[in-house]
Structures are given as C-alpha cells and as structure tokens.
Design a protein that fits this description.
By secondary structure, the protein is an alpha/beta fold. The protein has 2 domains: 86 residues, Rossmann fold (3-Layer(aba) Sandwich); 145 residues, Rossmann fold (3-Layer(aba) Sandwich), CATH 3.40.50. Helices cover 41% and strands 19% of the residues. The radius of gyration is 18 Å and the shape is elongated.
C-alpha cells in the first residue's frame, strides 16, 4: 500500500488532496483543516485524508498575551505573514486582529515570501515604529528562522514565534504545539493506515500540549527583562 505524507502545512495538504481521491493521505496543518477544506469534520474526516492539526495559526490570543507580559507598554504590534500561502495568512491575521482589538493594541500587517522581502518588511515595520512583532505561522518562515531571529535581535525588536525552532537559533520566545509530538502522530497514523485502517474513520489529531520556550540571553541582548511569572510558566528556558 502507498500512503502520501504531507507534513509541511495546509497548502501542501490541499495540493495532495487535489492530486488524488484514492491514495491515503496523512497531513499536518497549521490552520483549521475543516475551515481550510481539507476534511469534512475533525471526528470523521471522510474521503482519503486524515492527519494532525497543530493549530499554528490559531493561537494569536496567547502569543499576544505573552508579548504583553514581556513588553507591557508596547501598543504598536507588527504581524508578519506570507500571503502566497493565503489560507494560513488570513487565518493568522483574523485571529491576531480580533485579539488585538480587545486589548487596545494596533496591528500592522507586513507581507514577505522571499529573503529580500523579509528585509524590506523589517525596514518598513521599523519605519512604522513597531514595538513588538508576531511572526505568523508559515513553513517558509521556519526555513528562514535564522534570518528572522537575527534581524529581530539586531533591531532590538521583541518577537514571538510559533515553534521552538526559532528560539533554538536565537529567537526570543515561542508558543505553539510540539513539533516532536506532531511528527510522532503522523508516523503513528501512517503506520495504522499501512496496516489497513481507513483515513475516513480516523479523527484528526488535535494538540493537547503547547510549549512556551524563552531565550534569556536574547532577552538580555535586546534589553527585555523577562518577568519571573513568565519564566515560571515556561516549558523550557534557554540560558
């Protein structure tokens, strides 16, 4: 038996689904897979597709809350998205703007999908006097995590990311589901399908644990004092 594993994100899951209605597909998606049109429902996906929703785009409230604790006086928040991945970008924008409007914060959205565009976006958000940055969930940004973390540190910009990989390379803070758990679940589901189970009957896996990871040396480098209350909440503190 053949199984297609689409482990990059929502866009690739949709592309895999469009390519075949017969070969089983196991996906990971950062946005609501029902809203994105990947599956019919979370409990009974239907068709030939099932997988893992790691909710990368649906945690804007929590990420803004972490930024508020780190830089309580920041009211001008930049949001970086990749509009070439429109499903993910629009989900992130909707979630963050809804949360910001309830906390009297201004959100300015910047778009980047290439290395030069990331540089341009940083120049623009600094010109607009952004006081903090939320990097929207997107596979391309994960590929460019060193560039993004380096730019944020260079410009003394408190920034929150969606997975720990950014913090491991010098980013300030991340909040999101565990990559390790996500890929383990994909492997488990792939194995079950190879043994004869049907994707249509396998509920989409929802994350039950989210990681808060803080890089203390980066905080010191950009002049941010991490409050003890936030350190106490962290799943990992990089010293």
């Amino acid at each position: 038996m053949t199984v297609i594993v689409s482990a990059i994100g929502t866009a690739t899951a949709l592309a895999a689904k469009a390519a075949t209605t017969s070969i089983p597909i196991v996906f990971t998606a950062g946005t609501d897979p029902v809203e994105a049109g990947i599956v019919a429902s979370l409990s009974r996906p239907g068709g030939n597709v099932t997988g893992v929703n790691f909710m990368a785009s649906e945690l804007g409230a929590k990420r803004l809350g972490v930024l508020q604790e780190l830089v309580p006086r920041a009211t001008r928040i930049a949001l970086l998205v990749n509009r070439t991945n429109p499903v993910s970008a629009e989900s992130v924008i909707k979630d963050v703007e809804k949360t910001a409007s309830a906390t009297a914060r201004q959100i300015q959205v910047f778009d980047a999908s290439t290395n030069p565009e990331i540089e341009i976006a940083f120049a623009a958000l600094l010109q607009n006097r952004a006081e903090a940055l939320v990097v929207g969930a997107d596979p391309y940004f994960t590929e460019r995590r060193v560039q993004l973390a380096t730019l944020a540190t260079r410009h003394l910009l408190p920034t929150i990311y969606f997975i720990r990989a950014f913090v491991e390379v010098g980013g300030l803070v991340s909040y999101g589901a565990s990559d390790f758990v996500r890929y383990r679940e994909v492997g488990i589901y792939t194995g079950r399908i190879l043994k004869g189970e049907k994707p249509a009957d396998m509920p989409v896996v929802q994350p039950t644990k989210f990681e808060l990871v803080i890089n203390v040396p980066t905080a010191g480098a950009i002049g941010v004092t991490v409050p003890q209350s936030l350190l106490a909440q962290a799943d990992e503190v990089i010293e």
